[in-house]
Amino acid sequence: MHTEPNVLCPLADCPVGEISSVDAQINGQLESLILWRGEDAVRVFLNACPHAGRRLDYAPGKFLLQNDRLICAAHGAAFAVRDGHCVSGPCRGQSLQSLNVRVIDGMICLPASD
Q1: What's the pLDDT band for 4 if we cut at 50, 70, 90?
Q2: Rounded mean pLDDT, 56-67
Q3: Distances 3 to 48, 60, 109, 111, 113 between C-alpha atoms, Å
Q4: Residue 50's Cα: distance from chain center in Å?
Q5: What does the CA dihedral 44, 97, 26, 43 come to, rounded to 10 degrees?
Q6: Taking the domains of the chain in order of start, what are their residue ranges?
Q7: CATH 2.102.10.10 for the 6-110 domain, yes or no
Q8: Is the separation of the CB atoms in 76 and 83 below 8 Å?
């Protein structure tokens, strides 16, 4: 059985070099997602710090981004936006949980679940 991909948002809503956020159903749960668009890729992560499971935004959809590093508002952990790897802070060496996405007809999409 083929199902349609889960559309997160238009690619145009994610400016290159900036962080955006959306809410989406993941495994039956509404989750906050972090989207980062580079020159040649889009990265999507769950909005949950591996240190204590808290959201990384300081207000809904508002993130601290410095030198291509996403800073956790709760404890200051810094994550490389290209791969979600923690480069400093209390969870150094861990990573944000990434999600595979594709751009289809100008839309950022999660793969269809079977």
Answers
A1: low
A2: 93
A3: 28, 30, 13, 9, 7
A4: 13
A5: 10
A6: 6-110
A7: yes
A8: no
